[in-house]
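Reopening: T9SS type A sorting domain-containing protein still failing for me.
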Amino acid sequence: MKKKCFYILFLILVQSSFAQSNLVWKGYFSYTEIKDLSEDATTVFAASENALFSKNTSTSSIKTTNTIDGLSGETISALYHSNTVNKTLIGYENGLMIVINEADGTMLNVVDIINKQLPANIKKINHFMEKDGIVYVSCDFGIVQFNLTTLLFGDTYFIGDSGKETSVKQTAVYNGFIYAATETGIRSADFSNKNLIDYKQWAVISPGSWSSIETFGTALIAINSAGLVQKYASNAFSTVATLGQAAQDMRAKSNYLLVTTASKVLVYNQQMILVLQINNSQIPDVVPSFSCATVLNDVVYIGTQENGLFSTALASGTVFENDTPSGPSRNNIFALQTTTTFLWAVYGGYLGSYNPYGYNGTGPNSYGISKFSDAGWLNIPYSKVFGAKSISRITINPNNEKQVYASSFFSGLVKIEDDIPTFLYNQTNSGLESISFLGPNYIDVRINGAAFDKSGNLWLNNSLIEKGLKVLKTNGQWQSFSLNSILDKSIDASMGRLIIDKNDTKWWCTNTDGLIAYNESINKFKKINFGPDKGNLPTTNVRAIAVDNRNQLWIGTTKGLRVLSNIGDFLTEDQMTTSSIIILEDNLAQELLYEQFITDIVVDGANNKWIGTADSGVFLVSANGQETKYHFTTKNSPLPSNLINDIDINSATGEVFIATDKGMISFKGVSTAASADLSNVYVYPNPVRPEFDGTVKITGLLNKANVKITDIEGNLVYETISEGGTIEWDTTAFGKYKVASGVYMIFISAQDGIETKVKKVMIIR
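Support: Ran it again with your exact input. Result attached.
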């Protein structure tokens, strides 16, 4: 582990490269959960959960903006585009506000609301209303002024009873007064009053809870929590329409008033005559839940809670177009698996206690499956997976990449062939079993970790039953193995990730008995558990396992990291024992990742370990764990969250995919799997231009290839031995000074010296 000065320097460098160049990062975000809409003369702006996109109605081009571009990974709650200054304001649930200058794309993070001495749960930004160069920001505590010229906050209005905080949903200016729809009534004050910070200046003109208020032509319209649309006249509100359900949104645009509920969009003209009603049942193939709507150039744009953005002509409202950018169906990717050509993702899942019912507060979840390839995203809906819920793992057949299995932690195992789900294995048609302790009529088949062995058999674990280890053989037959001999109580054990090592030993995680292993060649179960005489794990709860290039087994638990020095110990030792990795930091011996909840461990082509955590982001440590090469968090990288669900690596490109609960991004790593020969050696960038501030990558190497770099006269400036398929050169002469402009020769030879390759790279200073 590097010393603190290294961390400071690294964070500065990463933050700088993050802000100035996104070449090493890529975002794979979902844009289906629309939080708010806005528009200018030609463009519709849409805010999804933690990203933006816009559609130019003249060119139909779509632009996306996410954490790779500088947005926060926090949840967006409000959006507003100001035509007067060509800036877009984004409000977040935590009170953060980001201002985007659309002229040059620069972003300003405004943290004044976050820094207010108020409870964190009442800082949510609900709405923006612009008047005379000032934006009135409606929040869960009151109203804040924001100056669009100075980009500074002004006064804060606490307008609740006796000056208390009250949740303001929306504001409007009408006939010289400012009105606020709050959870404690509609409150108003003289807009010209210079003392609006005094709560006594605000009068309650209509009691109750109100969700919306808007100036519409010569009228003031409001909606209460009961779904009654009311018009203000003669100092009182009267009902003009009944929605039948709560309003999600109301806004006045282009001489129309748009009212959105979960199931319909109502468009009124200035006489409050309904000119168009759009029901969610009219949308083809889905029945979405609406969140908001706006109109631009006689086209209605409708945001939904899970299905993205739709548009339809105002004149008819019958033909719908989906305007959502390509992406996964959700941001919260629970697990993924990638090959050299595509990536599969599933959405889980279960809580940390392996409970599928409480995951996302809705479980068992019904979210389907996604696949990413050069053709874009393919989203397989829940309706196509035979009712399989809480899909927690994806397993690709290494001998046939068109055959994929999805583990459901509630319903069994889904077989997918040529991107089409074809069969659901469950308790009725396979060796899989439902939990039984809740009675014979309760069906709950919890399949999780799965892996193929060298013979093409699929091994998997089946939680909370006696015969919890299963194998689907290549001939279609099932075999089950009792775990009573190795687990303290089989029906209490929930099981996680499963891997198979080169000796064909199966290793899998449990929450009650540590790490379990089985090898059918000797027909033995063994386990590594908590306690110095049982394996030296820091807890019984194991979550991540990986075998590295030196046959070491890395084990991630909810309380730290352990390493088994040799996987062969399973065959030779009665009790396998792990050890922690001790590092020096500030000359003090410390345990690497002490007490960290580790969610995943992945080994790259150079034997480095990518380690995901539940609340501290991602660590990249060296092969032996003694050096932390990177530590990515939301503060120094585009990570949208520090909760890491899963990590996988494209072995051909070195691209590291990181799935979090708020979106997936990738880091263009430098460690690729070793090649079989030197026929595809590639050097990039080439040439190296003056403005480039990075390293030269030489990829397509054999493992342990010797790489020498010389100037044109044969003077050696760099030499190394590759681990994996890629090495980096910082364009210095052995780290001492930057080499001069010129052509540099790269001599590559295999470890045995039989195969060689020569490449060139040009340096321009």
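The longest strand covers residues 742-749. If you still see a failure, please send the error message rather than a screenshot.
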